[in-house]
Amino acid sequence: MTDDRISLNLRTLDKSRQAQVTLPIDYTVAELLEASRQNWKLSPDTDYLVRSERLGRQLASRDMVGSCGLVAGDVLEVVPLLEAGA
Amino acid sequence: MTSEGLGFQLPAHDRFDRQRAIAWWNQDKLAGTVAMVAGCGALGNEVAKNLALLGVGTLILVDFDRIEISNLARSVLFGPSDLGRPKAEVLAERLAEIFPAGRMIPVVGDLWCDLGLGLLRRSDLVFGCLDSVNARFILNRMALRAGTPWLNGGLGMAACQVSFHHPVGGACYECQATPGMIKRFSERYSCAGLLRMPGNQPVPLTVVPAALCASLMVQEALLFWHERAGGLLPGQRLTAQLAPYRFVVDDLPHDPECCAHGVIDAVELAGDPSQVTAADLLGGKAGTLELGFDLVLSLNCRHCGPATILRPRSKVPLEELWCPDCGSMRSAKWVSDISDKMELATYPLQDLGVPEHHIVRVITVETIRNIELAGSLW
Q: Least CB-CB distance to B159: which of A45, A49, A82?
């Protein structure tokens, strides 16, 4: 991690997709999700969330990757928000 | 050496004797428990079936929908002879067969405008078995206002999620909202605030994740009712993935500015909404009655004049915005408060769309009172 960038390991919950990314520290979780959607062609009909494996918590959309407790090398997972029930 | 003569005794031989043999089990507590199942589809069927088998005393079953043929592959308690019938009613009938000593209360209607908040307030736990973000946002706000904890279940093709939300702490369902969820919620309403009927896009699904999700939800409920540790804490979500197998528990982000939080204070009881008026509840004093929803008074056509509606906003579909006589777009006039000066103050609250067991807030210069209306369901 340099002063203004952080390297993270990103993958989907089912581990079918993964990437190493280096992001500006003011990059938001919402922006990271949007980039994941586009690069991995995730379903447009599903909402996705980002969780930190080490912290055991979902990151808020407005969180910035450099100021939400993440450290270089952390694993982030893109998790679908499951909506069906009927 | 055998155990004979050591004083070991088996529990009484009845339908619950196996579960009574669990050291921490309290069957009497379950018999006195009130659980609400919001959504009576695949997940609601499985949850309600488990609750009835366990001997939960009172089940309130809520769904506006009717049984379709595609429900039969996932809903254990629906059969071909039930097609076209209300899901909540059929489920109540079948559960009464499973557990005849239980009390089953079907509510055939919409969460927001047909379910009185008082029924949520009387529930010990709500099971959200819904199929949209929109309905979950609504149930979340209602449960928090009523001061009732709730479990949210969600299904995917080979995965399910359970989250636990409690009015006294932790993230609520809306705290974790992403821009996508908020967009989806707002898409349900037009810019005039009227209901947009969404296209019915079928979701690929089997009964397998529904059965798993229901088991996890009811297990959480058993731990909660018996005050046992080991389950989800308020504001946590469990994701169970079936291919490959994986269980993950996460803390959800709590938003201190989330507007969904806030429990209704002490509640007084009053009469039936088919008879009681706002003027009655104001007791002749100047003030207002907050309905808790938007009431569309009229749709006004600039060519043909106003047409009286008197229905909650969520019961007025967008299509009604166009005048049936000349086709022009009409403007909606609505209120959310009834003041003592309005003619509507003399109407029975039922005529203003107020459901049985609803809680209204009555504000005068001297007091603010929350009043739960009576009804036939409880």
A: A82
Q: What is the rounded CA–CA span in Å between residue B63 and residue B90?
A: 11
Tens-place pLDDT, residues A46-66: 999 999 999 999 999 999 999
Residue of A nearest to B241 (CA): A14
What sign for the dihedral angle of Cα B345, B347, B352, B353? positive
Residue in B130, B201, B253 nearest the CB of A85:
B130
The verdict on a CB contact (< 8 Å) between A47 and B159 is: no
SS3 B271: coil
Residue with tokens 């809680």: B359
CATH node for A5-81? 3.10.20.90
Closest chain A residue to B175, measured at CA: A60
pTM here is 0.93
Contact B41/A85 with Cβ under 8 angstroms?
yes
From the CA of A44, how many Å to the nearest CA of chain B?
10
- Calculate mean pLDDT across residues A25-36: 96
In angstroms, the CA A81 to CA B90 distance is: 30
| ipTM associated with this complex | 0.92
pLDDT tens-place string over residues B79-120: 999 999 999 999 999 999 999 999 999 999 999 889 999 999
Sign of CA dihedral B207, B212, B213, B214: positive
| Nearest-by-Cβ selection for B41 from A30, A45, A86 | A86
